[in-house]
Amino acid sequence: MVLLIVWAGTQVRGQAEMPAALALPDSLRENANSVVLSYDLDYHVTSLRTATIRERRTITLLNGKHDRENVVAAYYDGESKITTFDVLATDLFGGEIFRARKSDITDERITAEGSFVDDRWVRYTKVPCTKYPCTITTEVERKVTDFAAMAFPHWNPVHRDQSLVTATFTARVPAEIPLLYTGYLVPEPQTTGEGQDRVYRWKLQNIPAQPSEALSPQPTETLPFVRVSLGDFEIDGYRGSFGDWERFGSFIGTIMAGRDELPARLSAEVHAEVEGATSDREKIDRLYRFMQDRCRYVSVQLGIGGWQPFSAAYVEENRYGDCKALSNYMGAMLKEVGIASYPVLIHSSEVPYYAIREDFATSAFNHMVLYVPSEDMYLECTSKHAPTGYLSESTLDRGVLWITPEGGVMARTPALVPAEHGHLRSVTQVLKEDNNVDFVLNATYFGAEQELFRGLAAYFGSPQDRLDWLHKNSFLPDVSGSDFQYTVAGEAPEVSMSYTTRLNNRLRKMGSRRFLMLNPQPYNWIPEVQEERSLPVDFRTTRFLVDTVRVNYEENLEIESGLIREPLVFEHQVGKYRAEMRRTEEGLLWIRTLLLRPVRLPAEDYGSFRQFFVDVAKAESLQLVLRERRTK
Amino acid sequence: MLRFPCLLVFLLSGIQLIAQTGPDVTFGPVSDEDRALREAPGDPTAEAYVLFDRLSLDFEFNDTDGPSLTERHHRRVKLLKPSSFDRANITLEYNREYAEISEVEAFIHLPTGGTLPVPSDQIRLEKLNGTREAFKFTFPQVSEGAILEYRYLERRKNILIPSPYYFQEDIPVRWAQYDAMIPPYYRYVSLSAPRLDVNETKLTARAWGPRFNVSPYNGGEQKIDHWDILWAMRDLPSFRDQPYSNNVSDYLPSVRLQLQAVQYPGRPEQSIFGDWKETVKELQDRLDFGRYYRNKVNYSTLWKDAAPSITGQGSEREIIEAAYAFINQHISWNGDYGMLASRTPDQVYQSRTGTSADLNIALLSLLNEAGVEAHPLLVSLRNTGAPIEQYPLLHQFNHLIVYTEVDGQSLLLDAGSADRPAGLPRERALNHRGWVAEKGNPRWISLEVPPSRQITMLDVNVAESGLAEVVIKSRMQDYFAFNGRSALKQRESDAEAPLVPDLLKVMPEARVTSFAEEVVDDAPLNQFTYTLQATAPVGQPVDQLLYLQPILLPLVDGELADVEARNFPIDFPYPWQQRYIANLRLPAGYALEEAPDALRLRAADGSMTATYRVEEVAPGHVSVVYSVILDRTLYASSEYPALREMFRRITELQTSPLVFKKVP
């Protein structure tokens, strides 16, 4: 067996890195753009509200395709402090090529996307790897208190396209504080008592690289990790526990308590607003609209404000707030008219990085919405334009935490149903004698498919800006047409659009023939080719897309090619495609339905999965060839 | 022919009065009419409307620090649609090393009446990075019809370059005003000359230090005549950007002042920028410019390590190439641009990273030590403003490259990537003109690069089903080669390999089976030969006919044909020539029945040509030869209609099929 030279030092300073990269076995080179030679994460809980987190990592970048791993970064804020930040880089033979000095290190305020005021910082340095392999050794230590201590140091020792030689995770916790943990693809920790502390140790060795593959599950489903939390903690005087969801939810409820009192004037307005409403649903709808008209989303995350919402009175005074503040404000108004609601912690994203589980309470959320149990309705309080009760695709079908008066309750947002997310679109193309095409589009987008268009209306006030954007993104064929109508439904998740134009570039004339791509907006996405697939397929799209295209042409033309005489049908677990064509008095009518549904498939089914989309794309690119009639 | 955007320069002297009545706006009160306004006049679609915007330039003097300038900003914006509400989030950023902001005040005027202040504790000062800071605040009770109003004072220690001011914005503007009270000792020039609605310059007596004892009886505060300037524009439409534009801000009406000379009473005039010769002398004497690459103490370690690979070279060209390669291989670019070095070449070498100026000054030091005559070449990057040649304004430059000559021909070196050959500056540096900072011989030159070329040959063997085995061989040169090599190295998936995205855009069902760089010994770095194999459904068989798409890799995109009229010139970074040759092998028995006629398109000035020809070479063998040549990089907006027509016809050709018929 090839002897691995494992870095086991403790100090970056003054260390001459051994050329471990030279001795890597092929099994750790395969599929790897980088190798973690060693990674030691030490988590030392020093009290209910303080901890020290120390990371020592040596990683070899094998080529330039690494994922910005030459950038070493550590985050901090008012409740955390970086006490050590050392970075050293060596070449293939262990010669030092870089050592981060003060002038190489940058401290920068970071403002999260969508946030206006944020009090978080990043300290980073970029290691100038001009040749590979390039080995980077880092040592970072942070001291964290209060809320910063709730960002527990979860252990993700290896990433995709990366192999691992050895890694350890040591958690040292006072014996009276329970350490809670869950793991995947890791052995149970060794536990020992050391003085007043209980010590937990995990160790991993020789993990081959897992290649990045499109449409694969989150790394937390295929790579080893350990996630930790504490059974007892105290933050800014609030005591809490991650012992179970109920207790964690209780803690959140505690820090939100007392912030829902409405100013007297608002209270009166709220009652006036719902006067005459005949049902709770109507009251909710009226108050949701009231809030949308009155408030806007502005994210201000300072100190405890990252966890605790601004009060309803503050929101009322300023008419703005972040997701917590607006949810609290909406909940307070509902409470005023006797409707109970729960704040809901949720992870807003395409796919949550970590899917929460019933048996392990953890903070894996980045957003808050509101839930009205009596109506089984969620309210997205940051949106100024969503219909009442509409949850966006980025928050559907995932685990959430309701903050009920009795504590936290884990729940799940509704799954996506194809019939509720898609479009009904029709296009009429009239071929003119001068080879122009009169083009008319009518479309209604609904559910998740309308989110983009609803957002577009909110973002671009000017129709010309909308036109430009729609054309640039291939939803419209040009910008010089007429009768552009764009209607955003207030009550339902629907956006309708119509557009008329004359196109001089859709019909190609050649001799006696005319060529026309039948479908102006084909569905032609095809997953990339993968001869060797190792990870399951995780397809997340839910859609029902209905398109009809009419092609009207003069009597002196006939179709030479492109007619479909029998319906074209493709079916797979991922969806169903059906296209048919009918003759009409003016020409022909093409009707196509495409249903897509989420599916998890084994890696070996990737080929058939891809083939479905190849077949669809081919069918969608149907070209009509018309020619002048040979006989009258 | 338009060479590059022309910048008019005019002196602030002489009294002019082309005045019209301007609005009398004081901070705070707004009229009922403005409160009630619900759309911008002439633009009912506008999301917001600038009712008033003013920048007032003034000067202060104290005996310790001397003169400084103050800029008072006052802005009033009407919000008309919810899409404008993010405009209520205000960030006022500055660098405390050179400036400070104070006296920030803000009000919101509600459409239904009433005015609310932004409380001072809600106006937060944030430290950003380094010496950068920002005041941040947002307005309460924002709604459609609300008017945001705020003002602040910015003080700058340096009076050389006041803040530029743009009259036009992305939303309509009712009134935009720049006014200044300039002591007579300071002579400024403006680097732009907008067509003003109000152009008023007069002399106004005003007290101002320093106190000069010009007579034995005049020791107290004195009033002196100031240049009292009011420039304003009214009713400006919103501004819209367009693709293939460059230096767009140059086309917006603006004021950009620059101090030209200072003359205090009884003292000789002190020129701030005399001419380019004086400027280059000063630059060359600077530690972080000339001295870094001319004094060996600053680069001795770098030279010691680089010398073995440089000194052994034979020709001057080889020496240059070796030095250029050494820098690229040992120092990585940190992503920042600059015209002055941040550290000595030795320090940069030791840290293995640096700005564009660090890398190129390090390269200059090697060339200098190797006996190659080379000079800094300063440029303003694309989209950061057209070069201004009339005055030696250094602040216009934000990037430094290296100018040298080989066999009497200029050679531009711009270190930063091992894949970009000598002679090819970064694309962003190609802003038409640059200034060679050669001591004693400073000069402006055109930044010309040879046309980048690409020849792509395809062998397409078509089966009866229409599916084809396609072998693509592409010879790329210069920027095409650099982009191709970079795409190959940096791809995160095979779908990002060179030519693959283009192929998949035309034929999403295509399946790429292999791709590779064809390594040719001793091939220069500016060439990249690449092969790609794929299967693609290029044809559609129907009965006895086969319709075939011969252009699998379009040479031009449709963006240029999109708009009806251009507001700005069309500006390509470099000239290029592309040639596409496809040899189509048809299944037995098929003959060409119909194809687009051979075509040759040529722009009136010959700067752009396109040719297309289909030929049946032999039974079952058809060749398609298609080429586009773009010799010019800059076209005036008035030339757009003709250019668009060419692009439309070219894009039409790209999608035209061939028709084959099976012959019995």
TrEMBL record, chain B:
Keywords of this entry: Signal
InterPro entries the record matches: DUF3857, Papain-like_cys_pep_sf
Annotated signal peptide: 1-21
Domain called DUF3857: residue spans: 69-238
Gene3D superfamilies: 2.60.120.1130, 2.60.40.3140, 3.10.620.30
Protein name, as recorded: DUF3857 domain-containing protein
